[in-house]
Structures are given as structure tokens and as C-alpha cells.
TrEMBL record:
Name used for this protein in its record: N-acetyltransferase
Top-level lineage group: Bacteria
Length: 238
């Protein structure tokens, strides 16, 4: 299945809409109390596990192979519609959806190359209910296009469209910095992904908890609250 993306300002993709607010009698009040208590105890977000950045040559090889596929007749990536990337003259966006995952490609036609790509992956750690609302973005951008706000623009589009994001088990230094920036503009916290059901850990976690591979960073998309996400996904509290 392919998807043609309209401009950023008209929302690239119709992400799932936030569900109605839960009833006031919902037991989620204790869930929020835990969050507030943890926020008072800890002042700064803990760093998640930082992975080693892949070599620049490896990233460029991957992007080169993808760019060739985009322009190879008969390939599944060939012929994807192209849309100008607002705020970045000369760059264009192509995208497709496959098996519930969104693939976004940023192309530089003048240089005949891909600037980078972001994939919004499903998480095998989640059950079907939570899988409807949470995606884990992973990005690869060529060195010449890094630090230009491209990945930030793609992540913000997803969040502004109502998509909630969860980080991967490990992050590159650049990805960690990106999540830190986004955490200042969107509601954020930490979740534990075990037993197929997410469990909210609070806005802050201590060093012991943040070392666990199941601990991930959470960013709420526009229109979501913790109560709504818990009602939609079955997310538990600590």
C-alpha cells in the first residue's frame, strides 16, 4: 500500500484520532498521582542507553541503495509521489505504508541522493491494542544533511498529527538529543514494555530503572493525555 503525503501544514497522514476522554470515575487518578510524586523526586530526565553511532559510510551505502530502488522501475519503492518539504528548499518527501509501518524518505533531486529516511516501526513488545497507537521512529540521515532539523521536522509532523511515539531499546547520541528537545514541547515520560502491555513509570526514572532494556521514552502526540492513552492501550501504572 502506498501513501501520498500532503504538505506538512495539512497533516501528512491521518494518524488514529485520540479516543474520547475516559469517565471521571476511572481509577486512573492514582496513575496520575504516581506521575506527580515521581516528578517531584527527580528533577531531570534520565538518559536511556546510548548506542554507538553507525559509521557514516554505512549510512550512505544504505541511503544510496534506497535511492536506487526509488528510481528502479518494477521495484516496490518506484514511483512514490513526491511532495516539497516545507522549510527546506530543494528537498522532497516520499513515503509508503507497509504492514502498518510508515516509511518516510527525504530526497535531494538536485544532488540525486537521499538526505535520509525515518521509519515509524511497530513494536513486537506490544499487544494489538497498544499497537494501534504507538510507533517507534528510527532514522538514518547522511552526514551532509545532519543537524539541519530534518528528523525533527518528521517527528514533529507525526506528533502534531496525533501519533504517540516510543523510543527504541537503544539510541544514538543524536537520537537522544532529538528526544530531549522534543520532550520540552510535548508531554513525555517513561514506559516499561514487558508482557505485551505498556506500563507507565512516570515523567522521571532513576538510574536503575533507566538501565533496563524494557524502559523506553514516551512522547504523547497532539490531543493525547496519559488518561486517554491508558484507556486506549490498556497501559498500566506503577
Amino acid at each position: 500500500m502506498y501513501l501520498s503525503l500532503p504538505p506538512f501544514w495539512s497533516s501528512w497522514l491521518a494518524w488514529p484520532k485520540p479516543p474520547p476522554a475516559p469517565d471521571a470515575s476511572d481509577v486512573f487518578s492514582s496513575f496520575l498521582d504516581v506521575s506527580r510524586r515521581q516528578a517531584r523526586r527527580l528533577a531531570q530526565p534520565a538518559e536511556l542507553r546510548i548506542d554507538v553511532d553507525p559509521p557514516d559510510a554505512t549510512i550512505e551505502q544504505e541511503l544510496s541503495a534506497l535511492h536506487q530502488r526509488l528510481h528502479s522501475p518494477g521495484d516496490a519503492l518506484h514511483g512514490l509521489p513526491s511532495t516539497p518539504l516545507p522549510g527546506h528548499p530543494g528537498l522532497f518527501v516520499r513515503s509508503r505504508v507497509a504492514d502498518g509501518e510508515l516509511y518516510v524518505y527525504i530526497e535531494d533531486p538536485l544532488r540525486q541522493c537521499l538526505a535520509g529516511t525515518t521509519v515509524f516501526n511497530r513494536l513486537v513488545e506490544l499487544n494489538r491494542r497498544a499497537d494501534r497507537h504507538l510507533r517507534a521512529p528510527h532514522s538514518r540521515y547522511a552526514p551532509a544533511y545532519q543537524r539541519r532539523g530534518l528528523a525533527t521536522a518528521v517527528y514533529r509532523w507525526a506528533l502534531d498529527g496525533g501519533q504517540c511515539l516510543v523510543s527504541g531499546a537503544r539510541q544514538s547520541a543524536g537520537a537522544h538529543a532529538l528526544w530531549q528537545r522534543l520532550g520540552r514541547d510535548y508531554p513525555q515520560g517513561y514506559v516499561c514494555l514487558q508482557h505485551k502491555t505498556p506500563r507507565y513509570l512516570g515523567r522521571q526514572v532513576d538510574a536503575r530503572v533507566q538501565e533496563a532494556l524494557a524502559t523506553r521514552r514516551l512522547l504523547l502526540g497532539r490531543g493525547w493525555t496519559l488518561a486517554r492513552l491508558a484507556a486506549a492501550t490498556g497501559m498500566l501504572s506503577v
